[in-house]
Each structure stands twice: as structure tokens, then as C-alpha cells.
Amino acid sequence: MVNENSTLHQKLKIQTENLHSLAYKVPYINSLLKNELDLICYTEHIRCFAIIHGALEHQLQNIANPFVSSIIEGYLPKFPLLMEDLQSLNADEQRNIIPAIGGALKIADNILLYSIENPYKLLGYLYVLEGSINGSSILKKHVQKSLNFQDDNCTKYFSAKDENYSVFWNLFIERINKIEDESIQEDIINAAYEIFWEILKIYESLFPYDESKLGNHITKYNPEAGNYPIPTEPKEISAALKAGIVCWDEFPYYEFRYEERGRRFAVSDAVWLVTLCDLTINNAIAQVNWLANFLAIRGMPVYTMEFQLLALYQQLSQTLPENEKKYRTFLKISEFMKENRCKLIKEEEFENSNKIFEDYLNSPTPELQFSKLSRNMGKLILGSILDDMNGIDESKNNLKKWLTDPLRFSVNWISAVSRTYTYYEHKLSK
């Protein structure tokens, strides 16, 4: 029973007690405890939690509230463990249980909303997710017996309870118990109840599942992607994935700056772009421009979208030559973007930008430390300047700030970047 002397942890346990009881009545949990778990159900369980943890941990990492930051200090992310499990499960080869994915995305949407409006509620979400790890060792044994998994194979997430986890959990409980503001306590309690309830609904959709509700969702390729359409043709998806990697590999800067998370978004964006072929050319251009501008202000110049569209056209046309006419949408938009770019600077000068940068970088001696990163760097720098001339000043500011960070780069590298910017800004101002 809750009384005025109860700690916040005690209040949370009491308020969610009935939901714990309900959990054991859910068919999915029953099948798990009876060692009758279905592989597709388990895979979607892990994928749904990857969606939720991916959203929560990204927001917590960037939280602007110092009080919340102090409470979560020392938190050990679970998203990497979930991604390891998905890879071991070959999850991208299995169909999605769409209602379950929808439930996870609903929670992810709430996380984004609360990170802006009321970050204290994220503590309630974290309480439930971290608390579930306490019983993970028991669930792990049932998963292993059901699906014949050995050691930690496919169960890294359920193996998260160790000494380090216990240290954080105890500190987390100690910290939230010191929260005296009753309105904040209420927000945390309500949020904990809310996510617990939503997770139960996800479990209910996992088993038994409706065969007609199986399909392919973008979260198959990127659990953090959100909710948007993808092609239904497997060959189109495969070609788009290859095109996304082609673009990723063309600019090593992506890997240096955005790491594995960026790679996931690169391929999921490429898959989504295929759906634009079904739109009118004007609507497709509008959608491409929206995404290109969105990415540009985050440090990926519009030129990279021009390259991505050409790669999509090439990969899709090679894979499904009978649909080449359909994929010309990408070729047309890419050529249109190139024409606009060439209005500001000649193509041969644009192509020469890589050499300009390399000459600055390797004079008087070669800069071997960043030899991979320097690939196509001239085009990225010049592309950001062109974006600035077209009104997207955030593109240049974002890229230049990152490339000239003294904590990240050598004096020689920063000098080469700055000189390249100066060279082209002067050239284009004439």
C-alpha cells in the first residue's frame, strides 16, 4: 500500500504490480515459459526492444536536462546487445509481425515527444526497461531451451544482468528515491505504467500472430528508422540496399562521423527512396529535396543525394532491367540536381576539387593518418559551399565545424580544410 513515507521505488512497484500479474496471462509469455517459443516471435520481440531502446538511448544521450542526466549517469546501453542478437538471428531475412512493430514505434514516438516536453517521464520508461533485466536470466534459459541456442548466442540482451548492471541499477534506484517533487514522481510513475502497458500489448501481438499481418517493414533494416513505406518487391529492396552501401563507401567521411548508426540510416533511406518511383516526377522531386535538405543541415551536402540517386538508378536497372523506365525517375532527378550544381561551378572544376584538397593536405609532406577520410573530401567541402549559396547555410557550417575540430584532427588536416574552403569561397565570389 502506498503511503506518504513510501519511496518512489516502492510506489513504482505497487503501481505496476497488477501489470506484472497480467504479463503471465499473455499467450506469448506462456509459450516462452513452456519452452514452446516460435523463432519469428522471439525475433520480433528482440526487434521491438531494439526499436524502443534505440529511441530511448539516443534521446538520453542527447538529453539537455542536467537533472535527468545525473540520474542516468553510468547507464549501460542495451541497443548494441539487441543489434548483436538481431544479426545472429538473421533478422533481416525474416518477415515482420507488423502489429508488434507498430506497438514499438508508438513507444518510440512517445519517447521523442517526452524528450521535448517532459524528460522526467523517460526515467519511468527506463525504470521498466532496466527492471525487466532483473528477471532476464530466467527468461534466457527458456529461450535457449525453446530455440536450442547455446551460450549467449542470440541472447546477448538477456545476458545483460552482470555486476556492472547491478551497480547502475542500485545507483539508479538510490537516485530516483531522492526525488522529492511530487509532480515529478507522478510523471515517472505514470510513464512507467504507460510503457509497461504498451509492452504487454506488443507481447499480445507477438503470439498468436495473424499470418495476414506478416510483412516487410523498414525497421527490418534499421530499427531506428521509424515508420515509412518500403517496396514489396524483394529484388528492389536488395538493389536499394546495395545502392545505399555504394553511396556509403563512396564517402568514407560517413563512416568516420556517423559510424554504424549512420550506415543503418544510409541503407534504410535508400530503400525508402525506391517508393518515390511510384509518384509523379514533381512529387518525387519534392520528396527528394526534403530529404536532401534534411541531411544537408546535418552535415551531408546535397551532392551526396545526387550521387545516391544515380547509384539507385544503376543498381535497380541492372537488377530489374525490365523496369528501367520506372527507375529513370532517379536518373532524371540526379541529372536535374547536377544541372543546378553546374550553374554555380563547371563540372570539371567540381571534379578537380578532390585534387585541390589532397594537394593542400599532403603539402609539404603526405598526411597518412587521414588518407582514407580524405577520399572525396574536396567534393564534400565544395558541395557544402554550393549548398550555402543555395540558401542551406547549415550545410557548410555543420560540415566545416566538424572537419576543423582540434580535438579530432591534426593541425595539418584543419589547415587543408580551411584552405580549401577559402579557395572555393574566393573563387565563387568573383
Low-confidence stretches: none
Q: Look at the structure and give the mean pLDDT.
A: 93
SSE ordering: HHHHHHEHHHHHEHHHHHHHHHH
Helix content: 55-70%
Tell me the radius of gyration: 25 Å
Outline:
69% of the residues lie in helices and 1% in strands. It has helices spanning 8-15, 17-23, 27-33, 39-61, 66-71, 79-88, 98-117, 120-133, 136-147, 163-176, 182-206, 234-250, 252-274, 281-296, 302-319, 324-342, 347-351, 353-361, 377-389, 393-403, 411-429, and strands at 96-97, 214-215.
Task: Provide an overview of this structure.
With 430 residues, this protein is mainly alpha-helical. The chain has 21 helices and two strands. It has helices at 8-15, 17-23, 27-33, 39-61, 66-71, 79-88, 98-117, 120-133, 136-147, 163-176, 182-206, 234-250, 252-274, 281-296, 302-319, 324-342, 347-351, 353-361, 377-389, 393-403, 411-429; strands spanning 96-97, 214-215. It has a two-stranded antiparallel sheet with strand order 1-2. α12 (234-250) packs across α15, α15 (302-319) runs antiparallel to α16 and α18 (353-361) packs across α19 (377-389). It starts with 7 loop residues before the first helix and ends with a helix. The mean pLDDT is 93.
